[in-house]
Amino acid sequence: MKYNATEDLLRSHQPEVIRKRLAQPPESQNISDAVLGGIDGCVTTFAVVSAAAGAGLPASVAVILGVANLLADGFSMAVSTYESHRAEQDYAQSLREMEEAHIDLVPEGEREEIRQIFINKGFDGEVLETIVDTICEDRKLWVDTMLVEEHGVNDQAYINPLASAGATFLAFLVVGAVPLLPFLTSALTLTQQFALSTALAALMFFMIGMLKSLVFNLPYLWSGLRTLAMGGAAASLAFVSGYLLRELFGLSGF
């Protein structure tokens, strides 16, 4: 049975449903890591292919350079993703420990910070004091509030750095391998291989853009075209660089 979207929205905002949902910790999502990995993988390998084509290098050279860059850059990006998330978690933990120490050393000062935060939000009088008392009675809530309101840092504990790195690496390899596929067949000329690789890379860029639109509720056509334009710009730069270097060193083109 197909329900009306408004009815589903109303049902999901019933008090008991909200209570259960908020009682659960945020789910770690790796969509953004996969999207970033996919875009970077396609740009990396197609840039290599474009440079090789622009320089008039054989298909075997394009494949060798493409695979080498795919593995090395994919691993590097996965490590960077892991370290980035770990650094965010370490930073949040250091702030948490600092606020814990401040509550122990200057509790009234930290309490006044909570009061000033909610004064700035427009609360006053008994309502303000009730809010301050409620927050400061729960030490974890007190620290969490200070992290968000004073430092602008959310709890990073729900993020799994290893899963994020894995999603980045897998998307990088899968999407990045697509522009190399035409160069694995000898049935096509080098010009045909590059043309097919270009079409496949453009398709990957557009599909990644559409995936972003579906996940983050963006206009799918505009998102696809924007991602395609960015990828195309990177590939064009690589092709022109390869062509200019070919001319500079007097190599024969294809």
UniProtKB/TrEMBL annotation:
Subcellular locations according to the entry: Endomembrane system
The entry's keywords: Membrane, Transmembrane, Transmembrane helix
This protein's record includes keyword Membrane: yes
InterPro entries, alphabetized: Ccc1_fam (IPR008217)
Membrane topology of this protein: Multi-pass membrane protein
Keyword Zinc-finger appears in the UniProt entry: no
Chief localisation class: membrane
Database matches in Pfam families: VIT1
Transmembrane intervals: 169-188, 194-215, 227-245
Descriptive protein name: VIT1/CCC1 transporter family protein
Native organism: Photobacterium atrarenae
